[in-house]
Amino acid sequence: MVSGISPQKQDDKMFSRPKPGESEADLIHFQNQFLAARASPAVKIVKKADKRKGEERNTDTERPQLQDSKDVVMLDDFPDILPALTPGPPKKSKIKSACVHFDDEDPEERLENHDQHITAVFSKIIERDTSAEAVTMPVPTGDPFPRIFHRSEIKSEVKVGSGRKSIFAQKMAARRAAEKPATAPSAECTQIASASLDVLNPEGSAEEAPEANSSNGDNKADDVFISQRPCIITGEGLGCQKSEQEAQAIHEENLEKLQSMSQEEILKEQERLLAQLDPSLVAFLKSRRSGNVGQKNEIKMEQNRPEEFVESLTVPQCGVGTSLSMQESGLEESGRRDENMKMEITGKAVIFSPEDDDLPVKPRKEWIHMDNVEFEKLEWMKDLPSPRQKKTKKGMQARFSLKGDLIPADADLPTHLGLHHHGEEAERAGYSLQELFHLSRSQLIQQRTLALQVLGRIVQKARAGEFASSLKGSVLRLLLDAGFLFLLRFSLDDAVDNVMAASVGALRALLVSSDDEKYLDCTFSWYQGMAAFPFVPNNEEEEEEEEEEEELTGTEKSQNKKQKDENKPDADVARYDVVKGLLKTRIQHRLRYILEVVRPVPTVVLDILHILTRIARHSSEACIQLLDCPRLIETIVREFLPTRWDPHVAEPGCLLTSLHGVACAAAMKFIRVLASGGRNATARLLNKFEMKSRLIRFTAEDPQDLLLPREEAIRLNTEAFRLWAVAAGYGQACDLYRDLYPVLVRILQSLPELLSTSHEKNPMFELSVQRAAAVVTLLVNVTQTAGCTVELQAKLSSSCEDSEQIPPPPVSWNQVSGLQPFLETSMKKFLQVISWTETWQILQPLTTTYMIYLGVYYSACSQQPSVNPVDCLEELERLTSEVLQPLLSQPAMHSMWDLLRPCSALCNPLSCSPAPESVFSIVSLSCTGGKPPLSLVGSKSPFPFLTALLFLINSITHIHKGLISKYSSVLSFEGLKDYLHQSWQTAPPSVTPASAWMLRHEYHLQYFALVLARKMAGTCPDYSRHASLYHCVAMALLSRLLPGSEHLAYEILLDLAFNPEFLLEGKTGGPEAADFSDILHLGTSAKLSQPGSAAASSSKPTRGALLRDSYQNLPAIRSCYLSHFVHLQPALVHSQASYQGRNYLIQSMLLPEVRGPILPSDWPFFPLISLYNKVTNAETRGAVLNSLPLDLVNTVTWNLQWVLLLETWRPKTLQTIPTAAKLARLMCIFLTGSDLFLEAPIHCYTAALLSMYCQPKALDSLNLDAPLPGLASFHDLYISLLEQFEGVSFGDPLFGVFVLLPLQKRFSVHLRLSVFGEHTSILRALGVPLQQFPVPLERYTSPPEDNLNLLRHYFRTLVTGALRNTWCPVLYVVAVAHVNSFIFSQDSTTQEADAARKSMLRKTWLLVDETLKKHLLYYRLLNAESPLGFDLYEQLPPIRLKYLQMVMQKDNKGNAPVLVS
Questions:
Q1: Quick one: CA torsion of 411, 412, 415, 416, rounded to 10 degrees?
Q2: What is the SS3 assignment for 429?
Q3: Which of 35, 455, 1145, 1182 has the most CB atoms within 10 Å of its CB?
Q4: What span, in angstroms and rounded, lies between the C-alpha atoms of 726 and 777?
Q5: Angle CA 1278–1284–1289, to nearest 5
Q6: 1165 close to 1222: Cβ distance less than 8 angstroms
C-alpha cells in the first residue's frame, strides 16, 4: 500500500458516502464496513496552541491510537481513571446567594463579607509610592485650561530603545529629553527687551502698552518682548542644514545691537525703516508678528520651562512684578473686549456676545476644535442662578426632597444635599415625580431603591393631606394615572432585597392607613361593631352594567361580573379598583414568596402583613383568594404565629434582626380580618390551619407571661380574643369556652383592678382596656350562641331528614349564665367614675361592652325554658332601680346627651367629608391624622355608650312591659330632642365609605330612641307634643338606612312609619283643618278647583274627606308597602340573623356593598313605580300585559293616600324629592293600564295631589330640564304620555292637565314642538276648561316665544283649524298670544324672522275666518275671567295700525289697504 493513498480507497475498494434518504441502519452498516477494513480516518484533529498560554507542545503525539475493536472518543486533559463520586460545587446564583442564608450563620460576619458600602471600597486602596519622584510645581497662568501643543513642534531626535513605540510616545520622549538640560534664564536675559519687530508697529505698541508706561506717548514702543528665538526669520529658505543656527545667530546680533542702543535711537531707527519699507510689507510683517507671537504665547504658557516665558516679560525697566500685573491687565482688557462683542457662529469664525458673560470659560478662536462653540454643553459649568418664584398665574412643577417633603419654589438650598441632580429647572432643589419615575427604572440598585423610597414617602404625606393647600390636583390620582401601581408591582418582582423592601413600603403607604385600622379596632367592641362594610370602590360604570342586568339573579350577576373582570386587562381593572387589580396580578403569590424564601427584615414583614390585612378587608372574594394561595397561610401561621420562640426576644433592648419564628400581633390581626370574610373561611382557619391551638396558646397565658415585649404581648393577646370573638359570632370555636373557662373567670375577676391603675398615666393602660373589651365581646357572642342551643335542638328533633340540619353548638345556657354576676358587678364599679372625665374616656369602651353584654344576656335569658320568668323579671327590676335609674339622674348623663349634636355625623356633614387625597379606586375611611375628639368616633363621643344604654333599656322594656314608664326620663332629655330635631332636617352627607361606617352606628342610636318612643306612646304625658318629631325622624331614617340594616327598616315600616300614634293629626282635627285651609285659600293664590273626570262620577270629595279615609286605611297602606318590598327578603333574613343574635345563620361579618340607602329616596311612590316597570318591561319584550293585579285599584289608591297624608301633614319629609320627580311618578298612573285613571278614588286622589303640586311655590321649584332620579329622559316619558293620551284619554281633563303642565314657556321648546309638530291630533281632545286649569296662563305666554319654527306651527294650527277655542281653550289662548306678539313686534331681528312676521301679518289680514282674524289682530291681555281667556282691543292702537298699513302698502305696491276702523 502506498502511504499516501486516500482513506476511502483500500484494496481497490471505495467506501460510499451516505446519501439522502438512507436510514440509521444504513449508517451503522457503513460504520461496520469501515471498522472492519481497519482504515485510517480521513481527518486528523490538531489542537491549535493558545496564544495566551504561550507555545504548547503538540498533544497529538500524546493521544493514544484508535483501537481496532471499537470507536473511542478521547477528550483533552481527561484522566484515564474515573474520578471519585464526590459532590461537585453548587451552581452559583446571584439571586439565591443574596436571598438565602443559613440559620447558624452569623449576621455580623455575613454583613462584613457582603458589605458593599463605599468605606469597604476605600479601605482596599493601595497607593503608589511617590517618595522618590521629583515634584515640579506648575507655573501659574491666567488661562483656565492647560496650553495644548502639537507633536509637530517636537522633533524626534531621541532614539528609542528596543520594542515598538507609538509616534506620540516618541515625541513625548523627545520632549522630556529636551527639558532635562534646560536651565533657568539668566538675569541678563531677563533684562533684555527685544524690539526687532515692535519697531515696525508703533500703533500696535501704543494699543497694548500698560498705563504705567504712558509717559512716552503713543509713539513709544512699550510692548516689546524678550525672545530666545526669532519670530519672523526662520532660516527655512537658506537651504543648508544649519539654517536654524544661522537664523539664531542673526537674531542674537539683533539683540546685541538693540541692547547697545538707547530708547531714542530705537525710535529713530523705527521711523527710518517705516519710511523706507513698502507699506504692504510692513503690514505683512505685522500680521506675521501678531500671529506667531500670539500662537506661541498661547501654546507655551503652560509648559514647565521658564525660558519659554521670557517673551511674556516686559522691558527691563518694568521688572518681574510689572510683568505679572500686565498679564492681569491683559486678561482684564480681553474680558472688556469680550463684553462688547456679539456671539455669532459663521463658518469657523466665532464672535462672542455679552449674553455669555456668565460662562465660566470664554472660548477663544485659537483653541483647537472650538470653532463651533456649543454653549449648551458649557451650561453645566455655570453657577446655578438663585431660585425665585415665577410671577405667573400658571403653577410651577412640584419638587420634593428625599424625605418626601414639598420644597417651595423659591427655596435656596445648598447643592451638597443632593437635590440638584436633574436637568430641568437646574436651579431648583428637589425632584419631580417624572424624574423619580425615571430614576426608579435605573440599572443601578441604589437609584431604584432611593426613587421608590422617596415615592413612598410622598404618597404617605399626600394621604396625610400635607400637600392639599400647596398643590393643585391630587398627587395620588396623578401617580395612579401614570402607572405607579404597576411600577410598584414590577419592582416587587425585583431580585434585589432593597428594591423589594422599598416597593413593599411604598405599596403599604398607598394602600394602608394606620389611622383607619386604629378606628376600626376601636369600633370592634361597639354594638354590631364586628360587622363592617367591605372596602370595595363604588364604581359608576359597574352600576350602569348592573342596571342592565337587573333581571339576573344574584349568583348570575356575580358570575357575569367575575367573567367580565377576567377578560379585562389588569390596567382597566386597577383603574376602578386597585386591590382587585393587584389580585389580578397574583400579588399574593409574590408576597408569599418574599415571606417564605426571601425572609426579609422585620419592617418589611410587618408591611406585608398590613398589606394582606388591607386586601382581606376588600371583600369575601379577596379573602377566598388569599386562603387559596398555596402556602401563604401556612407560612404566616408557621413563621409568625409559632407556639414556641426564642425567649431572648422579651429582653429589654433586644433588637430583632428577623421576625421569622416570633409571634406577631399583626399576623393574628390578619387572620382575624380574614375570618371576618365568612364562616367557611373561619372554619378553614380553625381546622385546616390549626388556629384553635394558637388561640389556646395566646389566650391561656396573661400578656405578662408571654415571652414578648409588653406592648406586643398585649396586642397579640387582644387580637387572639378578637379572632375568637369572630369565630364565636358564627357559632364556631365555642368548644374552647369549656376548656378556657378558668382563664376567662380569672380575667373577669381582674377587670376591677383597672380602676386602681386608671389614675396612672401608663401607656399600657389603654391597651389593657381594649383587651378587656375584646374579652367581653367574646362573651357576648358566646352568650348569643348558647341562647340558640334550645332552638336548634328543637329544630333538630322535629325536622325531617330532607331538610338542612344544623347541629346545636357545644355550649349550653347553664355554662354561660354564671358569668353575668362578674360583669354586672364590674359595670357598677366602672359607672361610679362616670363623672371623672379623663378616666371615663378611657374606661368608656369597656363599660359599653358591659351594657351590650347585659342586653344580650337578658334577651337570650327570657327565651330559655330553664329560666324562671319571675326570677328574670325581678332581676330586671333590681337592675333598673339600683343601676340604671341612678345612672340616668347623674349630671354627667345630661352632658353626654348634650354632646350628641356636636359629635353627630348627620348634624355635621363635613365630619364625613373624604380626605383631600382620596381616590375612588382606593377605599379609605378618611381617618388619616385622627378624628377630632368631638366627632362620632372621637374620644369624647357619647354615641357608643348611649347606643349600648338604649339597647339595654329596650331589651329590658321588651321583656318587662311594666318598666316602660321608669325610663320616660330618657326621652325628656333636651339634648336628645335637640339632636333628633336637627338630624332629620339636615341633609345627610353623601354615602361614601368614609361616611357609611360612621352613619351606620349613628342610625343605631336613632332606631333605639324611636323604638323606645313607640313603647311610650300613650304612657308618657309629654309624648303628644313630640309625636310628629319622632315620626319625621322615623321617615328620614327609613330613607337613609344602609345595606345590612334591612331588619331596622322592616321594623320601622312595621311599627313606626304607619303607626297612627305618630300621626296624631288624624285624631286632632287634621282633616277639618285641611278643608278650612282650602276654603280660605291660606298661603296661596292658586286655584284649588280640581279638574273633572271623563267618567260619570258623583260629587268630588274634599281634601279633608280624602285625608280622613287615608288615615283610617293606614293598616292596609302598611300591608301594601310591606308586600312591595318583598324583593328585599333575602337581605332581610341575613340582617335579622345578625340583629337577633342567631349566630348559626350569619354567613359573613362583611356587610353588603354600599351603593346607597336600602330604599330609594322616593320610596313613598314605590308601588306606582313597581307597577309601571312591570308593564314597561312586558311591553319591551313584545308581550301585552293583560293581567294586572286584581287589587290594582286598591294598590294605587293606597299609594296615593299615603302620599297625600305625607304631603299634607309631613311635607318636609318629601322635600328631598324634586317636584318634577313627583309629577313623573304620578304620570305612571296614566301609563299603567288603559282606564286606571278613570277609577273614582284614583282620580280624586290624583287630582288632590295635582292641586298641591300646582301651587306657586311648587311651580317655581318645578324643573323639567334637570336630570331626575330614576328617570333616564323626561322627554321620552312625555312622548309616551302623549301617545297614551291619544289612545285612551277620552278627553279627560285631569289627564289633559298633566299633558299641559310641561308646555310652560320656561321649559324645553322640544316639548312644545312635540305637541304642535308631531302630535297635533291631541289638540282636538285636549279640552281642559280654563276654569279647571290650575296653572296661571302667564307661565305659558311670558316671555314671548322666539322660536321661529314653533311660531309657524302655532300659526299653521290656528289657520288650518286644528287648534280651536272650543276644542283646546288653553293652548288656543297660548297660540293667539304668541302669534299676536310676534306679528306686531318691531324689534330688530334677523332678516328671516322679519320676513316671517310680515308674511304672517299679511296672511292674518287676508283671513276669511273673521273671528280668528279679530283674535289675532285685536288680542290685548290675558284675562282669566273672560270666556276666551283674554281681552280684545276695540280698535288697534295707532302704532300697530300704522305698522299694519306700512306692511300692507308694500304688499299692494302703493294701493292703500282697507283697514278696520
A1: -80
A2: coil
A3: 455
A4: 9
A5: 120
A6: yes
Whether 977 and 1038 have beta carbons less than 8 Å apart is answered as no
Query: Using CA atoms in the order 1013, 1015, 1020, 1024, what is the torsion angle rounded to 10 degrees?
Result: 60
Tell me the per-residue pLDDT of 418-452, one tens digit each, with 9 for 90 and over.
Answer: 888 887 888 889 999 999 999 999 999 999 999 99
If one counts every other C-beta atom within 10 angstroms of the C-beta of residue 1292, the result is 25
- Rg over CA atoms, the chain: 51
Residues 1402, 1408, 1410: CA angle, nearest 5 degrees: 95
Counting Cα atoms < 13 Å in the Cβ hemisphere of 452 gives 31
Rounded Cα–Cα distance for residues 1413 and 1086 (Å): 32
- Across the strands, what pairs with 345? 350
Q: Where are the beta strands (DSSP E) in 810-963?
A: none
CA dist 821 and 868 (Å) reads: 17
Burial class (CB in 10 A: 0-12, 13-18, 19+), 68: exposed
- Separation between Cα atoms, residue 53 and residue 473, nearest integer Å: 68
967: its cell numbers: 325610663
Angle of CA points 733, 738, 744, to nearest 5°: 95
- 8 A C-beta contact, residue 1269 and residue 1221: yes
Q: What is the pTM of this model?
A: 0.74
* Confidence band for 649, pLDDT divided at 50, 70 and 90: confident
> Nearest 5 degrees, angle CA 540-CA 1039-CA 1004?
105
DSSP code of residue 87: P
Q: How many residues does the chain have?
A: 1461
Q: Return d(Cα 1249, Cα 1222) in angstroms, integer.
A: 10
Task: Tell me how far apart the alpha carbons of residues 466 and 738 are, in angstroms, rounded to a whole number.
Answer: 52
Helices (H), 538-664: 540-548, 554-567, 570-576, 578-584, 587-593, 602-616, 620-628, 632-640
List pLDDT tens digits, range 9-45.
444 455 667 777 788 888 888 888 888 887 777 666 6
Distance CA 1375, CA 1416 (A): 9
CB 1190, CB 569: distance < 8 Å? no
Question: What grid cell was written down for 1382?
Answer: 310676534
Gap between the Cα atoms of 337 and 1173, Å rounded? 91
What would you measure as the largest C-alpha separation in the chain, in angstroms? 151
Q: Determine what percent of the chain falls in helix, strand and coil, rounding each to the nearest 5.
A: 60, 0, 40
Grid cell digits, residue 477: 390620582
